[in-house]
């Protein structure tokens, strides 16, 4: 296994390891073990959740009442991104943070923030994987020097309420077979070759190691080009055509579409908070 982790330079000059360990939905009893195993393997970037007291980013552009617990709609308050960003800038000025960033910002929200920011965000952490490639946001981030960090890089297969098919994608599996890698490694390598950092979550030591083994090799150009054909989440459609009570034709095919898996429905409400619809939350990028 190559232990040569690649570093990415941010717009502040600070460097971020291109692979991090995700910790969302890691059982509290397992997370410490997972982090210890990851550090031993060579991880130096851990993506922590608020519950572990480690929040450093604007996590969603949808604030909640101070001290509130859980996602009750009545806890949602009106966002004031410029004033929140001022507080983040003060944190940077104080030297406590070497870089400050945002998460789940659409192209429009990022553009609006860049208009008023004294210190531009260094990172936008967003859902990104071969079935939600974020082409528009990726190009915008690149043009503005904002690093895109990809969460759910494996398509969040452990999240029960998400229909994730990333690791089952035929193209990913074909590439994995050709290169003698696993589908997870191929999905992660795609993100790295796109210039993102990737944050796979695992509490299994074997998979923490497997996910780290994505350096020192690459997906060759001809196979990399195949990812533009994926651009989809599997959406089964079956259709039967009857004639005089008997099936004469049976179709089973899947649609080609890009789809966001984590839509943030908890941050949308007809009365509370700043967003009435999913379209408004993502400024149409859904
Ligand atoms: N900013 C945000 O709003 C936001 C939102 C979502 C996620 N995140 C961050 O991004 C991280 C990753 O996203 P995610 O947790 O949604 O999903 P993910 O990393 O795409 O997938 C994690 C799931 O894949 C399994 N897995 C890990 N390695 C595997 C492998 N090599 N082969 C097969 N299965 C594997 C894990 O199970 P095991 O644990 O059993 O291995 C877990 O069920 C989060 O943990 C969190 O830190 C941020």
From TrEMBL:
Lineage, highest ranks first: Eukaryota, Viridiplantae, Streptophyta, Embryophyta, Tracheophyta
Organism: Cajanus cajan (Pigeon pea)
Single GO MF annotation: oxidoreductase activity
Residues under site feature: Lowers pKa of active site Tyr: 72
Pfam families membership: Aldo_ket_red (PF00248)
Highest taxon in the source lineage: Eukaryota
Residue intervals of the NADP-dependent oxidoreductase domain: 19-55, 58-230
Active-site residues annotated for this sequence: 52 (proton donor)
Official protein name in the record: Aldose reductase
């Amino acid at each position: 296994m190559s232990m040569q982790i690649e570093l990415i330079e941010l717009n502040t000059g600070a460097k971020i390891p291109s692979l991090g360990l995700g910790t969302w939905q890691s059982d509290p009893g397992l997370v410490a073990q997972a982090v210890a195993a990851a550090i031993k393997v060579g991880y130096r970037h851990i993506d922590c959740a608020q519950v572990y007291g480690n929040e450093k980013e604007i996590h969603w552009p949808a604030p909640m009442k101070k001290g509130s617990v859980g996602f009750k709609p009545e806890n949602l308050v009106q966002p004031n991104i410029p004033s929140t960003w001022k507080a983040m800038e003060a944190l940077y000025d104080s030297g406590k943070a070497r870089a400050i960033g945002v998460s789940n910002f659409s192209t429009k929200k990022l553009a609006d923030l860049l208009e008023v920011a004294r210190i531009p965000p260094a990172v936008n952490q967003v859902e990104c994987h071969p079935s939600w490639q974020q082409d528009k946001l990726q190009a915008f981030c690149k043009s503005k020097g904002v690093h895109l960090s990809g969460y759910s890089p494996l398509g969040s297969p452990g999240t029960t309420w998400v229909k994730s098919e990333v690791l089952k994608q035929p193209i990913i599996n074909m590439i994995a077979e050709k290169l003698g890698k696993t589908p997870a490694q191929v999905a992660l390598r795609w993100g790295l070759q796109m210039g993102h950092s990737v944050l796979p979550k695992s509490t299994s030591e074997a998979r923490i190691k497997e996910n780290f083994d994505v350096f020192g090799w690459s997906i060759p150009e001809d196979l990399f080009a195949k990812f533009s054909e994926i651009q989809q989440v599997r959406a089964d459609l079956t259709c039967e055509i009857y004639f005089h009570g008997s099936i004469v034709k049976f179709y089973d095919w899947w649609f080609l579409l890009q789809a966001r898996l984590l839509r943030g429905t908890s941050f949308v409400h007809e009365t509370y908070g700043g967003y009435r619809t999913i379209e408004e939350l993502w400024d149409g990028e859904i």
